[in-house]
Amino acid sequence: MLSLKHVAKSNAFLSRLAIVISTSQSLSSSLSLYPHFYYTASFRSNQNTHFLPASTDFLASSFKDWFKLHNNQLLDRIFGILGAQVDDDLPSRRAADLALSQLGLRLSESFVLEVLAYGSDVLSCLKFFDWAGRQPGFHHTRATFYAIFKILSKAKLMSLMLDFLHNYKTQRYFHRVRFHDTLVMGYAVAGKPDIALQVFGRMRFQGLDLTSFAYHVLLNALVEESCFDSVEVILKQIQMRGLEDGITHSITVKNYCKQNRLDEAEAFLRGLMSEGRELDGHGVSRLVDALCKSNEFEKAGKLVEEFRESGMVPMENAYGVWMRDLAQAGKLDGALEFLRSKKSMEGYVPEVFRYNVLLCRLLRENRLEEMCDLLMEMKEGQISPDKVTMNAALCFFCKAGMVDVALKLYNLRFEFGLSLNSMAYNYLINTLCGDGSIDEAYRVLKNSIDQGYFPGRKMFSVLADALCREGKLDKMKELLMVALQRDLMPSTYTFDRFISALCKARRVEDGYLIHGELNRMNQVTTMNTYFNLIHGFNESKRGDIAAGLLIEMQERGHTPTRALFRAVIRCLCDMENPEKQFYKLLEIQLSHHEPNCELYNFFIDGAGHAKRPELAREVFEMMRRSGVEPNRSSHILMLQSYLKSERISDALNFFTDLRQRRKIGGKLYNAMVVGLCKVNRVDIALDLFREMRDYKIVPSIECYEFLIQLLCSSKKYDTAINLINDLETFGRLVTSFIGNVLLFHSLKTQELYETWIRLREVQDESSYGTSMLGLLVGAFSGRVTVSQHIDNLEELIEKCFPLDTYTYNLLLRRLSRRDMDLACELFNRMCKRGYEPNRWTYDILVHGFLKRGKKAEAGRWLEEMLQNGFDPTEGTLHLMSI
Questions:
Q1: Alpha helices, DSSP H only, in 662-763?
Q2: 58 lies in some domain
Q3: What is the pLDDT of residue 718?
Q4: Which of 313, 324, 421, 595 has its CA 20 to 30 A from that of 467?
Q5: Alpha-carbon distance 753 to 771, whole Å?
Q6: Helix (H, G, I), strand (E, B) or coil at 700
Q7: CB atoms < 10 A from the CB of 825, how many?
Q8: Where are the PPR repeats (predicted)?
Q9: H helices then E strands: how many in the chain?
Q10: Residues 6+ apart with CB under 8 A from 697
Q11: Residue range(s) defining the domain that contains residue 860
């Protein structure tokens, strides 16, 4: 089924298609068999309704029947046999010859020309040409030779064509046609008019001459290659021999146009018309095309109408060229209007390839309604579609949001001989990826590879991204190997995405192998990929490989962050012989880089986080011995390394030693206070805090936050409130963190509010801000009655400190104790204001509904919670099990 985002668009087109199909006499009876299709398709485009599977099957079947008009089972069998033949394998060739012979083909010039015109594979056409020439009773003609020459020329296989001509004499059927004529035509079509003229000269020397057909092939080639002097010579030869006809006139006009002598071309055509000479329409077409290429559309349009009114020229080809040039110049409305006008007034029906130009342009400009109308016009008119038409229709269904129809037609493609082109493959794969049908997209790609097509870099990235996103990593690995075998180098982003996905799936070794392949191909791995690989090996406790990658990324020009160094060092310290691994990495870094403070600090920081303060101290001393003076960051990191390991006395001794040797600034004090709070030593932290205040050092906001949090957790509310007052003396505002701490403890106990009131009673005055904060604490404690309205609660908080998601969670917790409707209202308001709900947000709501026995509501919120990737807490799980 289609995703919701495609439903409106797909229903609109289904309705449009249903109306056209239902009015067709040949399909009206079939429609009655699919009432579900007609009912669903009749919905307006704004209906949020999926169309039923029956509609998809019916529409695909209807278009399949139309596409079968193109199908020629006999020709498909011929090219199926030729396509299965292995080029240089003699048994395979003999098997193909036998299979073709068993078809009982009646070879004739017209049949061979039909087969060659039908084929899209040059090599298969060559194989058939060779096979036909070896069959008893059939001899190739100048027309069949010219056809194969045109096929080779169109495919730009000039070297193959020249080899073909060079080996021409060795073929057993060369005496059956005019030998020199064939050579002249071959070299002319191959873009070698000089050689063709040489052969022609030898013919004339031997008293031989060209046929009319060969003369015109040579003349046309000389025009194509801009050999204008020679054109005049050959043209005179044609006129002298009385071979001049409509083809000659058409090539003459082409000659004028090629030289941009458009006025002369027009005068030539008018002269022919005034003399009543033969005109086949191609000359008019060439002039119309040349005028359009010169941006003289108005003149070209008038010329078309003038020649039409004369009644002396068949205009079908000129009409087609005019529409094509209008469309290609972006004048699509003019082309469509011209088609409608000529169809209604003259009954003009373009050839299928003319329709294709309009279809492809409409598709490109995303004018899907008009493309739908044009497709249905062709279908209703029983115009036999070709492969371009079918591919365009497939792209239309993808773009119109009906990928199910496109996929069904793709699956039925062998029934009507559809071979997808690159555009159709790209549309289908891209749409399937966007619709979440990744397995189908991958299947289509694998089939396309079997057909010799492989997507470009952009489409490869789309599918690769989808495979990685869905965790289909084995398929992604197979896709990557196929790409490399075909010398297609995916983008750096694709490699990065794949390696990241492998690391996320705990397949870091596979990611490392891909990374190795990149290195062998001299492709620079991105910094993000190195991060993912190093993180993956750290999680796998392979610090040695992580350290190697760290060094490698530096050699490749990337600069690791402190956090990355820290992670690698922590992993090394968890391995066997941690000191050896640690110093080995340090030694390599010092040998590769100029020793400096930052480098040593990375190792002090890493050792501290690994809770190896002795290693950190050794690096610190090594730095001093090497003549690098430790900076303030070095001292802070050294202090933190002691504190993280709860070696308080070592930290204090280090701090005292620093204080004795030089003046200590606020950053070192702040580091000590925060570090002590983190290891729950609030008493020492408070002493240092007071010492800061005595020295007139302003503590950081982080100091206040950690101290107030720890004091509240220890129920030392009086000291915490005094710190809030102290904060105000510096004119600093209460932060969201501090405010949330106070609200959290207010919800747990009334003791915080009681302490607040007691301290306020002994003070002479209080600031407005702190008074409001006290009122808020009282409201959350249940000691102060305030309105339950959400707006009032939010406004009260905003007067005290900025709200964040944690604040809303506290509000939700308070409201969920009394009124779940108000809690849901707050949730909606929170989302509208741009705050992102987290795990606790959903858990509070689920828990609240469960507490009130509303399991259905709780289940709905739980489903939304799980969809957003969050799991309920143990307390909520316990309630669910009751």
A1: 666-678, 682-694, 701-713, 717-729, 736-748, 751-762
A2: yes
A3: 94
A4: 421
A5: 12
A6: coil
A7: 14
A8: 245-279, 280-314, 351-385, 421-455, 526-560, 596-630, 665-699, 804-837, 838-872
A9: 52, 0
A10: 665, 666, 669
A11: 820-882
Name which of 718, 688, 717 is nearest 703 in CA terms: 688
**Cβ atoms of 393 and 418 closer than 8 Å:** no
Could you read off the pLDDT of 629-671 as tens digits, one per residue?
999 999 999 999 999 999 999 999 999 999 888 888 899 999 9
Q: Of the residues 18, 34, 63, which one is the last residue of a structural domain?
A: 63
Q: Do the beta carbons of residue 41 and residue 15 sit within 8 Å?
A: yes
Cβ distance 736 to 806 under 8 Å? yes
Q: What tokens does 10 get?
A: 């797909």
- Is the confidence at residue 23, as pLDDT, over 50? no
Separation between Cα atoms, residue 839 and residue 487, nearest integer Å: 47
* Type of residue found at 283: G
Helices (H), 134-279: 142-154, 158-166, 179-189, 193-205, 212-224, 228-240, 246-258, 262-274
pTM as predicted:
0.67
Question: Nearest to residue 234, comparing CAs of 192, 196, 277?
Answer: 196
How long a stretch of residues is the chain? 882
Both structure tokens of 264: 């002369």
Q: Which residue has the tokens 């290429």?
A: 293
The CA distances from residue 861 to 328, 761, 816, 847, in Å, are 55, 45, 14, 10
Quick check: 775 and 784 in contact, CB under 8 A? yes
Radius of gyration of the chain, Cα coordinates, nearest whole angstrom: 41
pLDDT in tens, 48-99: 333 344 477 888 888 888 888 876 778 878 888 887 776 666 777 788 888 8
766: three-class secondary structure by DSSP? coil
- Interatomic CA distance for residues 138 and 106, integer angstroms: 9
Backbone angles phi, psi at 542, to 5 degrees: -110, 70
DSSP state at residue 801: S
Cα–Cα distance for residue pair 597/521, rounded to 1 Å: 36
Nearest to residue 623, comparing CAs of 647, 657, 660, 589?
Answer: 589
Q: Is residue 835 part of a domain?
A: yes
- Tell me the two tokens of residue 584: 């080995």
Does residue 486 surpass a pLDDT of 80?
A: no
Counting the structural domains of the chain, the total is: 2
| Any domain includes 419 | no
Q: 285-296: string of b/e by CB count within 10 Å (b at 16+)?
A: bbbbbbbbeeee
> What digits encode the pLDDT tens for the residues 726-768?
888 888 899 999 999 999 999 999 999 999 988 877 665 444 4
Tokens of 43: 């919905």
Nearest to 221 by CA among 192, 246, 243, 195: 192
Residues of the chain above pLDDT 90, percent:
42
Check: CB of residue 510 under 8 Å from CB of residue 502.
Answer: yes
Residue 411's contacts (CB-CB under 8 Å, 6 or more residues apart) are: none
Residue 238, helix vs strand vs coil: helix
Cα 390 to Cα 381: distance, rounded to the nearest angstrom: 16
Q: Which residues contact 861 (CB under 8 A, 6 or more apart)?
A: 842, 845, 846, 849
Cβ atoms of residues 59 and 14 within 8 Å? yes
Classify the C-alpha dihedral 217-223-226-231 as positive or negative.
positive
Give the separation between CA 376 and CA 162, rounded to whole angstroms: 45
Residue 305 lies in a domain: no
Output the pLDDT for position 14: 54
Q: Any alpha helices (H) in 347-421, and if so which ranges? A: 352-364, 368-380, 387-399, 403-411, 413-416
Q: Locate 745 and state its tokens.
A: 């403890």
> SS3 string of 66-119?
HHCCCCCHHHHHHHHHHHHCCCCCHHHHHHHHHHHHCCCCCCCHHHHHHHHHHC
